[in-house]
Amino acid sequence: MRDIMNVFTSLVKSAYHDLYRFGLRMYKIAPTLPVVRSGYKFSHLGSEYGGWIFVDSENLYNAVVVSCGVGEDVSFDVEFASHYGAKVILVDPTPRAIRHFKNVEAHLGEPQKQPGSKGGKQSVDSYDLSKLSPGQIRLCEKALWNSVESVKFFAPRNPDHVSHSIGNYQNNYVEDTKHIMVTTTTIDKLLDEFVKGKPALIKLDIEGAEIEVLLDMLSKGIHPRQVLVEYDELSVPSKISKARVEAAHSKLLDAGYLLVHRHQNNFTYFHAN
After folding, report:
1. Is 79 helix (H, G, I), strand (E, B) or coil?
2. CA 73, 76, 80: angle at the middle one, nearest 5?
3. Confidence category of residue 122, pLDDT binned at 50, 70, 90
4. pTM value?
5. What domains sit in the chain, N to C, each tagged with a CATH number?
6. Helices in 73-206 by DSSP H: which ranges?
7. Helical packing angle, 187-194 and 210-219, nearest 10°
8. Cα distances (Å, whole numbers) of residue 159 to 41, 80, 119, 143
9. Whether residue 74 has pLDDT greater than 60
10. How far apart are CA 193 and CA 191, in angstroms?
11. Which of 252, 204, 253, 264 is nearest to 228 (CA)?
């Protein structure tokens, strides 16, 4: 019995030290991006998985917003469009995301029939679509990027997951894992086609491509009042991801944005002017 206890104690100590070293490594790699204290009123819309926190601003009513990254949870987009009477332009070329959107589109005008899921896959019956009209939510079946081309769209490690990525950060940025080919568009071309003006808000949940899209957007002088971005690469911390996120964050600050809220890897930026 004593030998068994000694082995158990040794395993616990080893696990503790491994966890400590891992935590120390993550602390050194993870960027420190301070949130600005503000008097803004925040709102949360969407499910536990797909929801977002943003500034409840008057300019969101009857606005046009761009929401990149559909997956199989459009709870945020449906609730946003319903609450603010907004038009939402969704962007996602993933086959499963396209099928999910078309299912939602086919049920516009219908009330919620069941509670939403805590996970990332929602049933269309979990959405309250009673306040939405045809054309209020539209889908661009392309990937948002910093150029127009045909690119590899890498599958996630877990085949049960839906989100693909251009940068393949989940697999250490290599080029030879499972993928599909998709067509890309840029933020300015997307706006010309769907918005005809500046969106009030843009949401970027695009699996690592958000860095290139943000830099491209800012370089073209496109400044939505709010930018909601998930820095997906922070979920796989590395020196590369740290440098990329810090560069995008710095450019946003230079453009006049304030980081006003952060929840895990979801960041809310607000342009005060």
Report:
1. helix
2. 145
3. very high
4. 0.83
5. 31-271 (3.40.50.150)
6. 75-84, 95-106, 187-194
7. 70
8. 39, 29, 15, 20
9. yes
10. 5
11. 204
Sheet order of strands, 137-140 included: 137-140, 87-91, 64-68, 201-204, 226-230, 266-271, 257-263
* CA–CA gap between residue 172 and residue 256 (Å, rounded): 32
Spatial contact of 35 and 262, defined as CB atoms under 8 Å apart: yes
Which residues lie closer than 8 Å to 246 by C-beta, 6 or more apart?
31, 33
Residue 90: both structure tokens together: 């969704």
Let me know: does 192 contact 100? Beta carbons within 8 Å: no
pLDDT tens profile 176-185: 667 668 889 9
Q: Which residue is associated with the tokens 């300015």?
A: 188
Element of type H or E holding 260: strand 257-263
For residue 164, which amino acid is it?
Answer: H
Number of H helices, E strands in the chain: 6, 12
- What is the average pLDDT score of the chain? 85
